[in-house]
Amino acid sequence: MAALSWVESANGGSSDFPLENLPYGVFSTAGGEPRCGVAIGDFVLDVAALEATGVIGLDGGPYLTEPRWNPLMAADPTVWAALRERLTSLLTEGSADRATVEPHLVPLAEATLHMPFRVSEYTDFYAGKHHAFNVGTMYRGPENALPANWLSIPIGYNGRASSVVVSGTEVVRPWGQVKRPDEELPRFAPAARFDIELEFGTIVGRPSKGMVSVAEADEMIFGYVLLNDWSARDIQTWEYQPLGPFQAKATATTISPWIVTRAALEAFRTPTPERERPLLPYLREPRPLGYDIALEVGLTPAGGTETIISRSNVRELYYSAAQQLAHHTTCGCPMSTGDLLGSGTISGPEKGNRGSLLELSWNGKEPVELADGKTRTFIEDGDRLTLRGYAQGPGYRIGFGECTGVVVPAIDLPEWASETGAAAAS
Amino acid sequence: MAALSWVESANGGSSDFPLENLPYGVFSTAGGEPRCGVAIGDFVLDVAALEATGVIGLDGGPYLTEPRWNPLMAADPTVWAALRERLTSLLTEGSADRATVEPHLVPLAEATLHMPFRVSEYTDFYAGKHHAFNVGTMYRGPENALPANWLSIPIGYNGRASSVVVSGTEVVRPWGQVKRPDEELPRFAPAARFDIELEFGTIVGRPSKGMVSVAEADEMIFGYVLLNDWSARDIQTWEYQPLGPFQAKATATTISPWIVTRAALEAFRTPTPERERPLLPYLREPRPLGYDIALEVGLTPAGGTETIISRSNVRELYYSAAQQLAHHTTCGCPMSTGDLLGSGTISGPEKGNRGSLLELSWNGKEPVELADGKTRTFIEDGDRLTLRGYAQGPGYRIGFGECTGVVVPAIDLPEWASETGAAAAS
After folding, report:
1. Is A145 helix (H, G, I), strand (E, B) or coil?
2. B237-261 pLDDT, tens per residue?
3. To which pathway does this protein belong (chains A, B) (predicted)?
4. pLDDT category, B203, cuts 50, 70, 90?
5. What angle is formed at CA A124 by the lines to CA B338 and CA A173, rounded to 5 degrees?
């Protein structure tokens, strides 16, 4: 049974942001500075103002004076719990504080959303088994599809924090070195095989020094976002051996604008998939640490109609976020407040569950059918890609808000990058 | 002809820190707080104090109020030049300011050195051709040694900024997943093949948005350090396919404590090696952008004598720092003040020029002979590894100071990572 808020639009089960959610973002309104806010129904609550006026008071605070949640994320988890409890109390139906709080509600429709936190470092994992199998099959055949280490290690690589952007940011098609199999030498060209990756993002709150257990890792996690790891497949194919993806993944990584807290998702824990090979002790889960969160991907051509091209679920991930984070610390690597971990592409078992166009079009060989008779193998200029996700509770759902971006054409080639310009410079 | 300073120990050609160098660090003395300093001869000049008292005044300043050089690194290059000019004037023989400045000199022997800047993100390249060829030969044979893309792309991967430490920091041998070829499944164990990588580190001053040319990239660079990219070869072998090195490289990356400015090294430019395949226009250099900087690596067993196990030179790098940085921006990846780029291991053509124990011992098959009749294949607990480097000018040399670290034993296995502990938790 859903809890009721005096913010009517939060009730009824159709909002992403009921009283059970209370996700954290950063917003601004026309002419105003960005500040911390909490989504409730069709509104953002200006919690920075509530803290400044003393309506919210937290041990060791203030935490919300900057337009980012990092100071709170670095605080003790008892402070995280205290804020959630206070917000729930302020917003519950019948709250004596309604008259004080209500003036600080801003319609979501009037708010511009910004990056909710400063990303310290960004790591991208590869924990979707169907994705790893599909991609491996395309490149190495089904017998050698899954790398030998895949069932033992949550494989990950370091990505580029500076390229993480908030939902709504335009994504400029990248230039890069590309080479088709029939070409002898690479060309410098805009990526022709630009793609999405449907992922779940984990945000580290408490830092670590030294190796941590899976249970400790789980407690370090502050919250989650949807994450689209935009990928230039043709750049990646040419560059990734032997040291992994680099420029193919550094154009942009888009996250949804609201940090959905770990507390809000606790009711949606589910076991990770059955182990096909026993895990080493340090990776074993003390309890179910996966999540049941429905996901979908929409593609909208410029001026066209959206088609849902994929439906998947976070529960497909073979390794939980806590397992990934624990593995990340094995060598002694310090983890910091604001670190962001991408899960890897979350594909499901069926064709309609695939989380990238690479898989959906099977490496460009099977065009994906869209509304209005259109088709796609990879992203075309003007396409809007949108990830959505929610956990369904009894009479309510915990939503993430949209994680969206439009791909715009590559920039013109600078003169110095052209054959004539470089000759002049030399 | 070397310029003379009234700081006598800076003159004579044997100091790493003559008047021509003026490298930037962060230091503290007993009981004091870390602050910005400049090395001159056997002293550190407390430039934070000189700025605070108005002896140094820079447009848009103050820049030196925090114990890190990032604020100055983010400033306009005219400010970089103004500071260098002012410091040169203050420290030159016959300076009228000697009486004002001299009280702010602290003997280097009494100073503790700290990280000179906050590392934003860390990227490691693979631009040493002899190294790439040696490693490729060991793993794939000499015919397939150099990856197909190597002569076209400055290959790089993202590393972990949180693990970058200053010279002198102890390095704890990491745990990780390892598997020998004769083993069916991996074990969790301390790395048995722990290694160094002799590298040159580049520090980004001015940030970028969008693609930049090689010439523009060069102008973004603030300075350089020596860099040891500690590497667990056995962890790397098992984890690195298909997405590259991860935990194998995240235990620690040690940098020398002084930022040697680009200005100080300008006299030591040298062409990068002859191209064996034409570069794409965006990577062509407008002028020689390599450096002639001699390098060496010393290994000192606990309580023993140091042996110089390798001598190399930065001029061996096939791609310059400016080429690496320009490539880093091709996809639109924003580069930030404080980004650190490792060059890749700098090996030379002969056995005695190899920049890692992996190469020196040829994958453990040819032990390296040390003083006192000792040998090494990889690092043993208690070993101190020290990188040194300098550019030799007429009557002076531009040195980096030592980049050193002692490897200490791995921590005891936590109970939760043991078979019995994990069983109890499940």
Report:
1. coil
2. 999 999 999 999 999 999 999 999 9
3. Amino-acid degradation; L-phenylalanine degradation; acetoacetate and fumarate from L-phenylalanine: step 6/6
4. very high
5. 75
- Are A158 and B163 in contact (CB < 8 Å)? no
CA distance A350 to chain B (A): 24
Which domains does chain A carry? 8-114 (2.30.30.230), 122-408 (3.90.850.10)
- pLDDT at residue A420, as a whole number: 85
Q: How far is Cα A84 from Cα A86, in angstroms, rounded to an integer? A: 5
A59 is annotated as contributing to ligand binding: no
Q: Which of residues 103-122 of B touch A (CB under 8 A)?
A: 120-121
> In degrees rounded to 5, what are phi and psi of residue B263?
-60, -40
Q: How far is CA B85 from CA A41, B57, B58, in A?
A: 59, 12, 11
Question: Residue B202 and residue A182: Cα distance in Å, rounded?
Answer: 37
CA distance B266 to chain A (A): 19
What gap in Å lies between CA B313 and CA B50, rounded to an integer? 36
pLDDT digits (tens, 9 = 90+) for B46-78: 999 999 999 999 999 999 999 999 999 999 999
Distance of residue B246 Cα from the nearest chain A Cα, in angstroms: 6
Among A163, A241, A414, select the one facing B334 at the smallest CB separation.
A163
Identify whether the C-beta of residue B235 lies closer than 8 Å to the C-beta of residue B176: yes
CB contact under 8 A, B281 and A419: yes
Question: ipTM of this complex > 0.85?
Answer: yes
Average pLDDT over residues A211-218: 98
Q: Are A32 and A114 in contact (CB under 8 A)?
A: no
The string of pLDDT tens digits covering residues B351-376 is 999 999 999 999 999 999 999 999 99
Q: Quick check: A101 and A60 in contact, CB under 8 A?
A: no
Would the pLDDT of B424 be above 80? no
Q: Which residue has the tokens 């003036």?
A: A103
Residues of B with CB below 8 A from A418's CB? 281
Interface test with B, best of A124, A171, A243 (most B CBs within 10 A): A243
User: Which one from A104, A130, A131, A327 is the annotated catalytic residue?
Assistant: A131
Q: What is the mean pLDDT of residues B172-197?
A: 97
Contact A192, A232 (CB under 8 A): no
DSSP state of B333: P
Instruction: Give CA–CA dist B162/B391, Å, rounded.
Output: 29
The pLDDT-based confidence of A425 (bands split at 50, 70, 90) is low
Residues B270/B250, Cβ–Cβ less than 8 Å: no
Residue of chain A nearest B190, judged by CA positions: A331
Interface contact A163-B245, CB threshold 8 A: no
Answer yes or no: is A236 a known binding residue: yes
- Return the structure tokens found at A248: 């193919």
Does A281 reach chain B within 8 Å, measured CB to CB?
Answer: yes
To the nearest whole percent, how much of chain B has pLDDT over 90? 96
| Distance, CA of B362 to CA of B358 (rounded, Å) | 6
Task: Write out pLDDT tens, residues B287-343.
Answer: 999 999 999 999 999 999 999 999 999 999 999 999 999 999 999 999 999 999 999
Q: How far is CA A357 from CA A196, A298, A299, A305, A309, in A?
A: 7, 12, 10, 18, 9
Distance from CA of A93 to the nearest CA of B (A): 40
Residue A28 CA from chain centroid, whole number: 21
Q: Per the annotation, does B51 bind a ligand?
A: no
Task: State whether residue A189 sits within 8 Å of chain B by CB.
Answer: no
Query: Residue A423's pLDDT band (boundaries 50, 70, 90)?
Result: low
A363 Cβ under 8 Å from any chain B Cβ = no
**Distances from the Cα of A85 to the Cαs of A57, A77, A116, A139, B12, in angstroms?**
12, 12, 20, 50, 69
Which among A241, A333, A422 has CB closest to B281?
A: A422
- Rounded CA separation A158/A162 (Å): 12
- The pLDDT, as a whole number, for residue A387 is 98
